[in-house]
Amino acid sequence: MLNQSPPVARISLPSKGRLAEDSLAFLQACGLTVYKPNPRQYEAVIPTLPGLKVLFQRPADIVVSVRNGSVDFGISGMDVIEERRGSNGDVLVLHDALGYGGCSLAFAVPEEWDDVTRMNDLVARAARLGRPLGVATKYPILAGRRLEKYALPYTLISAEGTLETAPAIGYADLICDVVSSGQTLRDNHLRLLEDGVILQSQASLIANRGSLQTRPQALEMARVLLEYFEAHLRASGNLSVYANIRGQSPETVAQQIFTHCNIRGLQGPTISRVIVAEGEQCWYDANLIVPRDQLFTTIQGLRAAGGSGVVVLPVTYIFDEEPPRYKAMLAALAKED
Ligand SMILES: Nc1ncnc2c1ncn2[C@@H]1O[C@H](COP(=O)(O)OP(=O)(O)OP(=O)(O)O)[C@@H](O)[C@H]1O
Ligand SMILES: O=P(O)(O)OC[C@H]1O[C@H](OP(=O)(O)OP(=O)(O)O)[C@H](O)[C@@H]1O
Ligand SMILES: [Mg+2]
Asked: The organism sits in which domain of life (predicted)?
């Protein structure tokens, strides 16, 4: 079912590479499932957001499209964003931590370069070779900016596909590329330099500044996207725990929880009376929002507080009063008007 309402804004999503599938999974987890009628088409819709048209592009092209305003929003890796965003401020970062696509952009050298463990060691290496070092990279701006900090003759060699084979094949001396597990480096007998990391990257949401400044509907779409993203990300680390606890009053049950549990929920436990038959003991139902990694200690605490029948449910969203990143976006828009 394709939604027929005219779009008010456009977003570009990664069409290939590791970010492609993970972006669709992230949006789905946010409640914004992308519906693509034909796998070969480059357009799609998000039925939850009828005003938003979805396009698919290569991660690097997404940044260029957002920069020149041909799309309003994009999701790409922060490494690619920093490489392509330019310096005129047209690309606004709305969210820099979507929680997937994590990797580092870093320099790596052949394992057998025993005399090179830090960036500065490259200077002596180049002197010994008597020629500039060839650095293979898909990030010439970021790599070049870092190399400029050293008194080092170098040539940037742009390459497509797998860069890690470049030193072995012989068309570069070292590489500057993304690393996550490090497996590709190890497989190709390369080693990271100790101070060779340029930046930590993960999937991020960007927008065209002009779109947000001149089109209220695009600005409203930014708010809606940030609401969903932030509420989902805040919720995903938490679980909702319900326990039945015997007690005299809501206050005494709360006191039992405070005595035995480190966790008190978002504001404090919510405690409601369980309706029982006349003459039976008083029971209360306590609800706590608990970080996933503290679930077990919380359950132990609730048991110690007299709790039983503990039920644990996932939390879909936690909405704040207003998404902090939306406020930050408004401030950034106001600053450079
Ligand atoms: N191993 C990885 N783990 C996490 N994210 C990664 C990994 N490799 C690449 N990425 C992310 O994917 C994005 C690059 O996407 P992609 O792999 O499609 O492009 P590319 O391979 O650099 O370019 P090309 O279009 O030339 O293949 C970057 O933002 C990068 O951070
Ligand atoms: O440290 P690792 O976990 O080994 O990840 C790093 C590798 O991941 C990326 O390639 P990808 O597999 O996405 O293929 P690509 O070369 O087509 O981009 C990147 O270009 C590295 O080669
Ligand atoms: Mg890649």
From this structure: Bacteria
